[in-house]
Amino acid sequence: MTKPVLRGVLIVAFFALCAFVLVPAFVPRPAFIPGFAPPPDMWPRTVSIVGVVLGALAIFLALRGGQPVEEKVETDGSSVPQMLLRFAGIIAIFVLFFAVVPYVGFLIATMFLTLAMVLMTGERHYRIWIALLSFGGPVLLVLFFHSALGTQFPKGELAKLFGF
Amino acid sequence: MLAEILSALVAVATFQNLLIMAAGIWGGVIVGAIPGMTGTMAVTLALPFTFYMDPVPSILLLVALYKGSTYGGSVSAILIKTPGTASAACTALDGYPLAKQGKAGKALNMALYSSVIGDFLSNLSLIFFAAPLAALALHIGPPEFFMLMLFALTTVAGVSGSSLLLGMVAAALGLLLATVGEDMYGSFRFAFMPDMQAGLSIAPVLIGLFALPELIKLIVMRAAKTEEAAALGAQHVTRAEFMGSLRSILKGSVIGSILGAIPGIGPSSAAFFSYGEAQRSSKNGANFGKGELEGIAASESANNGACGATMIPLLALGVPGDVITGVMLGAFMIQGLTPGPLLFQTNMHEIYMLLIGMLVSSVLLFFAGKITMRMFSKVAHIPQTLLTPLVLLLCIFGIYSIASSTFDVAVLLVMGVVGFGMFLLNIPAAPFLIAFILGPMIEENLRRALAISRGDPAVLLSSPITWVFAALIVFVVSLTIRREITKHKERRVEQ
Amino acid sequence: MKKLLGSIAVAVFAATGPMMAQSYPDQAVTLVVPYGPGGASDLAGRALAETAQPFLEQPVTVMNKPGAGGMNGARFVSEADPDGYTLLLARVGMALSPAVTPDNAVPWDAYTFLGALEATPMILAVRADAPYDTVDDLITAIKDSKGGMTYAASGATAIDGFTTQALLADNGLDPLTAATLVPYKGGGALATALLGGHVDFVAMAAASLMPHIESGDMRALMVFAPSRVESLPDVATAQELGYEKAGQITGWSALYAPKDLPEEVVTKWHEVLGQVATDEKWLDLAARRGSISTIGTVDMTEYAKSQYELFNGLAKDFGYLPE
């Protein structure tokens, strides 16, 4: 399967899922809306069906040819599995971030997230700047938002345990 | 009347007022330019200070912040592809490519000139046409609103890049995502968890879609270019470039002034509208989205143009058009001034002071923009590997603090991953965002119109305004289809 | 080394100690307004924040958390730590939503009730050029139109929808079909819809309507409040006109906190509210919003309960809930 065909299939699959599974299940139609007024599911259903049609058209055109040339994605020459691994790493860190916020608090979680992101870009120079960014940055931002807007950031169970 | 204007001029032209406006404008530009911080934040932040100020300076401060932040949004849109506000999304489309070509200075200057001109013209329209524009705004009922926004949606064709079909797919995704949350009648749609009942906010979707994929790309592909951006100072907009964009600037200012006067439309939709219009009518149309100065001019003149015009329904009708004017309405009330028709009878002196002050702040915007541009030009020297995580950090904090919501931060990160997925599949992000913002207005007004007409679709073509826009939609759509078919045939011949 | 550890411990204690000590409040208090900025509830919240600050001796920061008919902000506060640093500016919606949509709302009693703040009258209004001078004229027109008349509201089960529906029910009309509801978002949009003539009437919070009534663009037909509004002495209340259901509906604001709030915090706020009640600025700001301060005059726990029961009964009457 070429990329344009795969893309078309993905589009059809997503919008079909919305039109035939998600809309009926998660868009209730309250009985009190008068019959002549369009109900809440009218619009999402219409848009999803249009999406299915567009996706089908994309498959059709991909098979028929004559589509714009796909732009090449620029890389540093890493292999596909390597790049997939990096992408999985990003997802894992994002998930981990939300998992630890309730325990270690917002401040420490964002420090960890920022540091992980910088290191994952492959940056190993500017060590002082990296440290300042990942540790000093969140501290400054917490202080700023707390004093200016009175924002209360999640403190975390662990921090509470130590009496913070 | 002349005597009144003169006395207002004397009253407003104090050193203190100038200082307040300058601080407001500059503060607004800086807040707008920092990723993750929004004009709404700046205005609400300043609100408590206005309790202790005189009525006119306090409103001038808020207006200055609003204008400043609307321009400031373009700075981060151009330099780091992170539109500070949704209204700068189209600015990023041309501004970021220009920055990558080493022409960030040109882009920033063009954004500033068109913002200032749009702002100034919009203030003039506030002074001379407030009453007729407010009356026009009241005529915009659900059917007219629906047609107007449907026409604005045709901008999608202009921002779809190489494939119109994929642009439409992206728009459908945006329309669908915008339906998450509370339905207009009070039930919930796609509320998989309680947090989703409130829907997805624009800020995390916008930033997630535009800025975050850059970071993910950097990590996954590691194709970072470390070239230094050229010094900004030397890059002036030439006379020819300015004259070439002047038509779009003027058109954008008019579009902004008219659309801004209609409550509920706001600067973002005006910017999309203007960008689409410029792209269709410009001889450089084909270059839009690849780094065209005229695109920046169209988008920025319209969003700042709308900014001043949102004061029209606020002052003349007492109706706030968006969140920021909502906050201003609160400020007026606290000061004991009730915006609305009566204000023009009872407080004419204050109104004149306000209008004069707004004109002055347009001029101040020019200088504040120039200074800020220089400050932020250093951003170009920060290596991408540090800059993009910094942007993420700022956005996470900024978005969290809007509503103390971890859910909004989750939306930000998830949209980043979605945006990256769309990039891999060559599905453009801009149509998604435009549809996401216009979608609720289109849907709700369609349903309102049909509720009022008891299900009769003829209501959608019941007034001259709707006829005009229906005709425009038909014209633009058929033009686009014809162009697509020709392009398609040409490509088949080539292959 | 021991010395160093000791000084760190002291520093940590100094930084965290006050929070453990009995000195509420030692930092800014966040007041969550569950609706968007600029509306009647936001103005009430900001007025309270402004006037309570000197008595509380700590800043009160207002945070808007709109969405889901106010339930988004309400849920945030009901799930927050009961430390007194996150409070809710409650509105009539906090009693209405759980009464009408029990599955999707925060229960009416999921809070500590710190006290009532104000009563906000609702007004039934039409355009000044409309041919209706009294409520009876309007009702007759509604009957004649057979469902063709339209009114704007924030949603079917929102308070500004319930006002109209109660009035219809009182006149023996079907509350859901006798007039057509057109949903709009926010007080400003509702007022504009009437002003532009896109709908025939509204029955909503006074704050967004007063400027237009004063300028002569709109006409007030009736007030939903326990007593007449000072600035509209000639407009009768629903009670006076003998409407049973509509007569019980009115708007209000109150101060809520998460459940199980420490006694010390509750006492502090009773004290602060007592001072706010007679504060000139508070009373002045309330008058400008068109509302009446009710601090200290209502037992909030009881009132919230009675409001919940009222709306629950109406919801069953109107057919939103099974009997």
From TrEMBL, chain A:
**In its keyword annotation, does this UniProt entry include Amino-acid biosynthesis?**
no
Ubl conjugation found in the keyword field: no
The record's InterPro entries line, in alphabetical order, gives:
DUF1468
What's in the keyword line of the UniProt record? Membrane, Transmembrane, Transmembrane helix
Top-level taxon of the source organism: Bacteria
Task: Read off the Pfam families from this record.
Answer: TctB
**Domain DUF1468 stretches:** 11-154
- Looking at the UniProt entry, the stretches that span the membrane are 5-27, 47-66, 87-120, 126-145
State the protein's name. Tripartite tricarboxylate transporter TctB family protein
Source species of the chain? Celeribacter halophilus
TrEMBL record, chain B:
What residue intervals traverse the membrane? 6-33, 120-138, 145-178, 198-216, 323-344, 351-369, 381-403, 410-438, 458-481
Q: Which InterPro entries match?
A: DUF112_TM
Task: Note the Pfam families from the entry.
Answer: TctA
Residue ranges occupied by any DUF112 domain in the UniProt entry = 18-433
Provide the alphabetized UniProt keywords: Membrane, Transmembrane, Transmembrane helix
Q: Does the keyword rRNA-binding apply?
A: no
Q: Is this entry keyworded Nucleus?
A: no
- State what protein this is by name: Putative tricarboxylic transport membrane protein
UniProtKB/TrEMBL annotation, chain C:
Report TM segments. Answer: none
Instruction: Name the InterPro entries for this protein.
Output: BUG, Bug_dom1
One Pfam family of this chain:
TctC
CDD domains according to UniProt: PBP2_Bug_TTT (cd07012)
Q: Which domain of life is it from?
A: Bacteria
Signal sequence residues? 1-21
Instruction: Answer whether the UniProt record assigns the keyword Thylakoid to this protein.
Output: no
Keyword ATP-binding present in the record's keywords: the answer is no
What are the UniProt keywords, alphabetically?
Receptor, Signal
- Similarity comment text for this entry: Belongs to the UPF0065 (bug) family.
Question: What is the protein's given name?
Answer: Tripartite-type tricarboxylate transporter, receptor component TctC
Species of origin: Celeribacter halophilus
